[in-house]
Prior knowledge:
Strand order of the largest sheet: 3-2-1-7-8-9
Largest sheet: 6 strands, parallel
Structural class: alpha/beta
Shape: globular
CATH class of the largest domain: Alpha Beta
Bound molecules: ligand BJW
Number of strands: 9
Helix content: 25-40%
CATH architecture of the largest domain: 3-Layer(aba) Sandwich
Number of domains: 2
Radius of gyration: 18 Å
Number of helices: 9
Strand content: 15-25%
Amino acid sequence: MKNIVILTGAGVSAESGLGTFRDKGGLWERFDWRTLATPEAFAANPEEVHAFYNARRENLAAAKPNAAHDALAGLERRWREEGRGDVLLVTQNIDDLHEQAGSAAPLHMHGELLKSRCEDCGDVFAHADALSVERMCAACGRAGGLRPDVVWFGEMPKGLERIYDALAACDLFVAVGTSGTVYPAAGFVQEAKMAGAWTVELTLEPGEVSPLFDERLYGPATEVVPRWCAAA
Ligand code: BJW
Protein backbone atom coordinates (compact mmCIF):
# COMPACT_ATOMS: atom_id res chain seq x y z
CA MET A 1 0.00 0.00 0.00
CA LYS A 2 1.26 3.46 -0.88
CA ASN A 3 -0.71 6.41 0.46
CA ILE A 4 -0.25 9.64 -1.47
CA VAL A 5 -0.89 13.27 -0.60
CA ILE A 6 -0.73 15.64 -3.57
CA LEU A 7 -0.60 19.39 -2.97
CA THR A 8 -1.24 21.64 -5.94
CA GLY A 9 -0.79 25.38 -6.35
CA ALA A 10 -1.36 28.05 -8.96
CA GLY A 11 1.35 26.63 -11.27
CA VAL A 12 -0.84 23.62 -12.13
CA SER A 13 -3.46 25.96 -13.64
CA ALA A 14 -1.01 28.43 -15.23
CA GLU A 15 -1.14 26.77 -18.65
CA SER A 16 -4.94 26.83 -18.48
CA GLY A 17 -4.67 30.61 -18.58
CA LEU A 18 -5.17 31.33 -14.87
CA GLY A 19 -2.50 33.57 -13.41
CA THR A 20 -0.16 32.56 -10.61
CA PHE A 21 0.44 34.92 -7.68
CA ARG A 22 4.15 35.48 -7.25
CA ASP A 23 5.66 34.90 -10.69
CA LYS A 24 6.63 37.86 -12.86
CA GLY A 25 3.34 39.51 -13.85
CA GLY A 26 1.47 37.40 -11.27
CA LEU A 27 -1.64 38.51 -9.43
CA TRP A 28 0.19 39.80 -6.34
CA GLU A 29 2.57 41.76 -8.58
CA ARG A 30 -0.31 43.50 -10.30
CA PHE A 31 -2.64 43.84 -7.32
CA ASP A 32 -2.02 44.56 -3.65
CA TRP A 33 -3.12 41.52 -1.62
CA ARG A 34 -3.54 43.75 1.45
CA THR A 35 -6.47 45.50 -0.25
CA LEU A 36 -7.98 42.34 -1.76
CA ALA A 37 -7.21 39.20 0.21
CA THR A 38 -7.78 39.95 3.89
CA PRO A 39 -11.02 40.12 5.89
CA GLU A 40 -10.08 43.70 6.80
CA ALA A 41 -9.86 44.66 3.12
CA PHE A 42 -13.30 43.18 2.48
CA ALA A 43 -14.78 45.06 5.44
CA ALA A 44 -13.22 48.32 4.23
CA ASN A 45 -13.95 48.03 0.53
CA PRO A 46 -16.25 45.15 -0.43
CA GLU A 47 -16.94 46.56 -3.93
CA GLU A 48 -13.26 46.39 -4.89
CA VAL A 49 -12.91 42.85 -3.53
CA HIS A 50 -16.07 41.71 -5.35
CA ALA A 51 -14.76 43.23 -8.61
CA PHE A 52 -11.48 41.31 -8.25
CA TYR A 53 -13.22 37.96 -7.70
CA ASN A 54 -15.89 38.67 -10.35
CA ALA A 55 -13.07 39.16 -12.89
CA ARG A 56 -11.45 35.92 -11.79
CA ARG A 57 -14.78 34.07 -12.17
CA GLU A 58 -14.91 35.38 -15.75
CA ASN A 59 -11.36 34.10 -16.40
CA LEU A 60 -12.26 30.72 -14.93
CA ALA A 61 -15.32 30.43 -17.19
CA ALA A 62 -12.96 30.52 -20.19
CA ALA A 63 -10.43 28.05 -18.74
CA LYS A 64 -10.17 24.32 -19.33
CA PRO A 65 -8.19 21.69 -17.42
CA ASN A 66 -4.77 20.94 -18.90
CA ALA A 67 -2.66 17.80 -19.23
CA ALA A 68 -1.39 18.16 -15.65
CA HIS A 69 -4.91 18.16 -14.16
CA ASP A 70 -5.74 15.17 -16.41
CA ALA A 71 -2.66 13.24 -15.34
CA LEU A 72 -3.36 13.78 -11.62
CA ALA A 73 -6.97 12.64 -12.07
CA GLY A 74 -5.67 9.58 -13.95
CA LEU A 75 -3.22 8.75 -11.16
CA GLU A 76 -5.97 9.03 -8.58
CA ARG A 77 -8.24 6.74 -10.65
CA ARG A 78 -5.49 4.17 -11.16
CA TRP A 79 -4.64 4.11 -7.46
CA ARG A 80 -8.31 3.59 -6.57
CA GLU A 81 -9.04 0.93 -9.20
CA GLU A 82 -5.90 -1.05 -8.39
CA GLY A 83 -6.37 -0.69 -4.60
CA ARG A 84 -2.86 0.70 -4.28
CA GLY A 85 -3.59 3.03 -1.33
CA ASP A 86 -5.30 6.28 -0.43
CA VAL A 87 -4.87 9.45 -2.46
CA LEU A 88 -5.73 12.86 -1.08
CA LEU A 89 -5.55 15.72 -3.55
CA VAL A 90 -5.24 18.99 -1.64
CA THR A 91 -5.36 22.13 -3.72
CA GLN A 92 -4.60 25.69 -2.74
CA ASN A 93 -6.37 26.74 -5.92
CA ILE A 94 -9.86 28.16 -5.84
CA ASP A 95 -10.60 27.12 -9.45
CA ASP A 96 -12.52 23.92 -10.25
CA LEU A 97 -10.15 22.55 -12.90
CA HIS A 98 -9.28 19.43 -10.88
CA GLU A 99 -13.00 18.59 -10.67
CA GLN A 100 -13.42 19.28 -14.40
CA ALA A 101 -10.53 16.88 -15.10
CA GLY A 102 -12.27 14.13 -13.10
CA SER A 103 -10.54 14.25 -9.71
CA ALA A 104 -12.95 12.72 -7.21
CA ALA A 105 -13.05 15.22 -4.37
CA PRO A 106 -10.17 17.67 -4.23
CA LEU A 107 -9.86 19.37 -0.87
CA HIS A 108 -9.88 23.12 -1.51
CA MET A 109 -7.92 24.35 1.48
CA HIS A 110 -8.17 27.99 0.34
CA GLY A 111 -11.83 27.73 -0.64
CA GLU A 112 -13.65 27.85 -3.96
CA LEU A 113 -14.22 30.69 -6.38
CA LEU A 114 -17.58 29.25 -7.47
CA LYS A 115 -18.99 29.33 -3.95
CA SER A 116 -19.97 32.24 -1.74
CA ARG A 117 -20.93 32.50 1.86
CA CYS A 118 -23.30 34.67 3.85
CA GLU A 119 -21.54 36.22 6.82
CA ASP A 120 -24.93 36.79 8.47
CA CYS A 121 -26.37 33.26 8.41
CA GLY A 122 -23.40 31.12 7.29
CA ASP A 123 -25.18 29.73 4.21
CA VAL A 124 -22.75 28.57 1.50
CA PHE A 125 -24.08 28.48 -2.06
CA ALA A 126 -22.71 27.71 -5.50
CA HIS A 127 -22.82 30.32 -8.25
CA ALA A 128 -20.82 31.30 -11.31
CA ASP A 129 -22.15 34.81 -11.82
CA ALA A 130 -20.98 38.13 -10.41
CA LEU A 131 -21.48 39.05 -6.77
CA SER A 132 -22.25 42.53 -5.44
CA VAL A 133 -22.90 44.21 -2.10
CA GLU A 134 -26.55 44.66 -3.13
CA ARG A 135 -27.19 40.95 -3.63
CA MET A 136 -29.51 39.35 -1.08
CA CYS A 137 -28.77 36.05 0.59
CA ALA A 138 -31.31 33.49 -0.68
CA ALA A 139 -31.31 31.79 2.73
CA CYS A 140 -31.76 34.71 5.18
CA GLY A 141 -32.87 37.49 2.85
CA ARG A 142 -30.29 39.99 4.06
CA ALA A 143 -28.12 42.02 1.69
CA GLY A 144 -24.48 43.01 2.14
CA GLY A 145 -23.24 39.90 3.92
CA LEU A 146 -22.23 37.78 0.93
CA ARG A 147 -18.52 37.13 0.38
CA PRO A 148 -16.47 34.74 -1.75
CA ASP A 149 -15.99 31.45 0.12
CA VAL A 150 -12.22 31.73 -0.13
CA VAL A 151 -9.52 31.82 2.55
CA TRP A 152 -7.81 35.16 2.93
CA PHE A 153 -4.63 35.97 4.85
CA GLY A 154 -5.21 35.63 8.57
CA GLU A 155 -8.09 33.19 8.09
CA MET A 156 -8.03 29.51 8.92
CA PRO A 157 -7.57 27.22 5.89
CA LYS A 158 -10.19 24.50 5.38
CA GLY A 159 -9.88 20.78 6.09
CA LEU A 160 -6.66 21.00 8.11
CA GLU A 161 -7.49 18.10 10.44
CA ARG A 162 -8.07 15.78 7.49
CA ILE A 163 -4.93 17.03 5.76
CA TYR A 164 -2.66 16.53 8.78
CA ASP A 165 -4.11 13.04 9.34
CA ALA A 166 -3.37 12.15 5.71
CA LEU A 167 0.15 13.61 5.95
CA ALA A 168 0.86 11.56 9.06
CA ALA A 169 -0.12 8.40 7.17
CA CYS A 170 1.41 9.14 3.77
CA ASP A 171 4.23 7.32 2.00
CA LEU A 172 4.52 9.80 -0.84
CA PHE A 173 4.04 13.59 -0.86
CA VAL A 174 3.95 15.44 -4.15
CA ALA A 175 3.89 19.25 -4.44
CA VAL A 176 2.89 20.58 -7.86
CA GLY A 177 3.23 24.20 -9.04
CA THR A 178 3.44 25.93 -5.68
CA SER A 179 6.09 28.37 -4.49
CA GLY A 180 5.91 27.11 -0.89
CA THR A 181 5.63 30.61 0.52
CA VAL A 182 2.18 30.46 2.13
CA TYR A 183 1.63 28.65 5.41
CA PRO A 184 0.40 26.24 6.58
CA ALA A 185 0.64 24.57 3.12
CA ALA A 186 4.34 25.43 2.91
CA GLY A 187 4.95 23.25 5.98
CA PHE A 188 3.27 20.12 4.61
CA VAL A 189 6.51 18.79 3.11
CA GLN A 190 8.11 18.72 6.55
CA GLU A 191 5.06 16.99 8.05
CA ALA A 192 5.28 14.34 5.33
CA LYS A 193 9.00 13.89 5.91
CA MET A 194 8.37 13.39 9.62
CA ALA A 195 5.97 10.58 8.64
CA GLY A 196 8.80 9.02 6.62
CA ALA A 197 7.32 9.85 3.21
CA TRP A 198 9.27 10.28 -0.02
CA THR A 199 8.79 13.88 -1.12
CA VAL A 200 8.60 15.10 -4.71
CA GLU A 201 8.48 18.61 -6.17
CA LEU A 202 7.10 19.14 -9.68
CA THR A 203 7.23 22.78 -10.68
CA LEU A 204 8.56 25.22 -13.23
CA GLU A 205 11.87 26.08 -11.60
CA PRO A 206 13.69 25.58 -8.29
CA GLY A 207 12.68 27.89 -5.44
CA GLU A 208 13.67 28.47 -1.85
CA VAL A 209 11.89 25.37 -0.55
CA SER A 210 13.24 23.02 -3.22
CA PRO A 211 16.12 21.60 -1.11
CA LEU A 212 13.48 20.13 1.24
CA PHE A 213 12.36 17.64 -1.42
CA ASP A 214 13.91 14.21 -2.06
CA GLU A 215 13.08 14.27 -5.78
CA ARG A 216 12.64 17.32 -8.05
CA LEU A 217 11.46 17.63 -11.61
CA TYR A 218 11.34 21.07 -13.24
CA GLY A 219 9.46 22.30 -16.29
CA PRO A 220 5.93 23.27 -17.34
CA ALA A 221 3.31 21.28 -15.41
CA THR A 222 1.79 19.97 -18.65
CA GLU A 223 5.10 18.22 -19.35
CA VAL A 224 6.51 17.17 -15.99
CA VAL A 225 3.30 16.06 -14.29
CA PRO A 226 2.16 13.56 -16.98
CA ARG A 227 5.75 12.24 -17.20
CA TRP A 228 6.03 11.74 -13.45
CA CYS A 229 2.52 10.27 -13.11
CA ALA A 230 3.15 7.75 -15.90
CA ALA A 231 6.22 6.45 -14.06
CA ALA A 232 4.59 6.40 -10.59
C1 BJW B 1 4.53 26.59 -12.73
C2 BJW B 1 4.09 27.02 -13.94
C3 BJW B 1 3.87 26.08 -14.87
C4 BJW B 1 4.40 28.82 -12.70
N1 BJW B 1 4.07 24.79 -14.54
N2 BJW B 1 4.75 25.38 -12.33
C5 BJW B 1 5.04 34.60 8.87
C6 BJW B 1 5.53 33.30 8.89
C7 BJW B 1 4.70 32.23 8.66
C8 BJW B 1 3.35 32.41 8.38
C9 BJW B 1 2.88 33.69 8.36
C10 BJW B 1 3.71 34.77 8.60
N3 BJW B 1 2.95 35.90 8.51
C11 BJW B 1 1.69 35.54 8.21
C12 BJW B 1 1.61 34.20 8.11
C13 BJW B 1 0.45 33.38 7.77
C14 BJW B 1 0.04 33.53 6.32
C15 BJW B 1 1.25 33.29 5.42
O1 BJW B 1 1.65 32.19 5.12
N4 BJW B 1 1.86 34.38 4.94
C16 BJW B 1 3.09 34.23 4.12
C17 BJW B 1 2.94 35.02 2.84
C18 BJW B 1 4.26 34.59 4.98
N5 BJW B 1 -0.93 32.47 6.08
C19 BJW B 1 -2.22 32.64 6.37
O2 BJW B 1 -2.66 33.71 6.78
C20 BJW B 1 -3.11 31.44 6.20
N6 BJW B 1 -3.84 31.20 7.38
C21 BJW B 1 -3.23 30.89 8.54
O3 BJW B 1 -2.02 30.82 8.66
O4 BJW B 1 -4.11 30.63 9.57
C22 BJW B 1 -3.59 30.42 10.88
C23 BJW B 1 -3.11 29.04 11.15
C24 BJW B 1 -2.41 28.81 12.29
C25 BJW B 1 -1.94 27.55 12.57
C26 BJW B 1 -2.18 26.50 11.73
C27 BJW B 1 -2.89 26.73 10.60
C28 BJW B 1 -3.35 28.00 10.32
C29 BJW B 1 -4.12 31.68 5.08
C30 BJW B 1 -3.45 31.81 3.75
C31 BJW B 1 -4.49 32.19 2.70
C32 BJW B 1 -3.85 32.36 1.33
N7 BJW B 1 -4.80 32.91 0.44
C33 BJW B 1 -4.46 33.05 -0.95
C34 BJW B 1 -5.63 33.73 -1.66
C35 BJW B 1 -6.81 32.71 -1.77
C36 BJW B 1 -7.95 33.24 -2.55
C37 BJW B 1 -7.53 33.67 -3.93
O5 BJW B 1 -7.08 32.85 -4.78
O6 BJW B 1 -7.67 34.86 -4.21
O7 BJW B 1 -4.18 31.77 -1.52
S1 BJW B 1 -2.94 33.96 -1.26
C38 BJW B 1 -2.38 32.95 -2.59
O8 BJW B 1 -1.19 32.22 -2.22
C39 BJW B 1 -3.48 31.89 -2.79
C40 BJW B 1 -2.67 30.67 -3.08
O9 BJW B 1 -3.44 29.49 -2.84
C41 BJW B 1 -1.49 30.82 -2.16
C42 BJW B 1 -0.29 29.99 -2.57
O10 BJW B 1 0.23 30.40 -3.78
P1 BJW B 1 0.83 29.35 -4.81
O11 BJW B 1 -0.24 28.46 -5.29
O12 BJW B 1 2.02 28.71 -4.25
O13 BJW B 1 1.19 30.31 -6.04
P2 BJW B 1 2.56 31.11 -6.33
O14 BJW B 1 2.25 32.11 -7.36
O15 BJW B 1 3.18 31.57 -5.09
O16 BJW B 1 3.52 29.99 -6.94
C43 BJW B 1 3.26 29.39 -8.20
C44 BJW B 1 4.35 28.38 -8.49
O17 BJW B 1 4.03 27.74 -9.71
C45 BJW B 1 5.74 28.99 -8.63
O18 BJW B 1 6.66 28.22 -7.93
C46 BJW B 1 6.01 28.92 -10.13
O19 BJW B 1 7.38 28.70 -10.45
C47 BJW B 1 5.18 27.73 -10.53
N8 BJW B 1 4.72 27.77 -11.91
N9 BJW B 1 4.03 28.43 -13.91
C48 BJW B 1 4.50 24.46 -13.31
N10 BJW B 1 3.45 26.38 -16.12
